[in-house]
Amino acid sequence: MKVTVGFALIATLISGASAVSEWGQCAGIGYGDKPCDSGLVCIYINDWYSQCQKGTSTQQSTSTRQPTSTQQPTSSNNPTSTSTGSTSSATSLAGRMKAKGRLYFGTCIDSYNLNNNQLTSIAKAQFNQFTPENSMKWDAIESSQNNFNFNNANQVVNFAQSMGALMRGHTFGKLHVSRLRQAH
């Protein structure tokens, strides 16, 4: 009897924990459909991303291709942007953040990601700032003392510049080259 009650309790906790909280991803191509927490609905953003938000609809969509809300951005939500990329759209993540007074909304990307059309399409559509994962870190730029190679870092910068996005350098990592530790 105790075992049965224990399993029922665990099953209840697990099913409750699997619901997505506000602003979490609930659907999208390659992601699958997840239920939203009570009081939230799965709002279609694009084919790749739907998000749990407070809404007036009582029915949650399980489709990644149909919107669950007919809410349209109001003129107060439209960002003023000088960006030339598609990220100036009021429906992009960057556009929504800009409408709330943020200068940018970014993600990490690196030179080895730039051949992934699916990833770069999402990056171009949703973000207006990029941080290279590793290509600007010391060991990537100067693999040995006085041996510099900026090729991978330049690829990321060129990608960002091609769409008018900002760059944020990410240079320090816990796995820094040993010669830095030995210098002191």
TrEMBL record:
GO MF term list: cellulose binding; endo-1,4-beta-xylanase activity
Which InterPro entries does the UniProt entry name for this protein?
Answer: CBD, CBD_sf, GH, GH10, GH10_dom
UniProt signal peptide: 1-19
Q: Region entry Disordered: which residue ranges? A: 56-92
- Name the domain of life this protein comes from: Eukaryota
Gene3D superfamilies xrefs: Glycosidases (3.20.20.80)
Name its GO BP terms in alphabetical order. xylan catabolic process
| Cellular component terms per the entry's GO annotation | extracellular region
Q: Which organism is it from?
A: Serendipita indica (strain DSM 11827)
Q: What UniProt keywords are attached to this protein's entry?
A: Carbohydrate metabolism, Glycosidase, Hydrolase, Polysaccharide degradation, Signal, Xylan degradation
Q: Where is the GH10 domain?
A: 87-184
A Pfam entry, by short name: CBM_1
Could you tell me what this protein is called? Related to endo-1,4-beta-xylanase
- Family note: Belongs to the glycosyl hydrolase 10 (cellulase F) family.
Q: What is the lineage of its organism?
A: Eukaryota, Fungi, Dikarya, Basidiomycota, Agaricomycotina
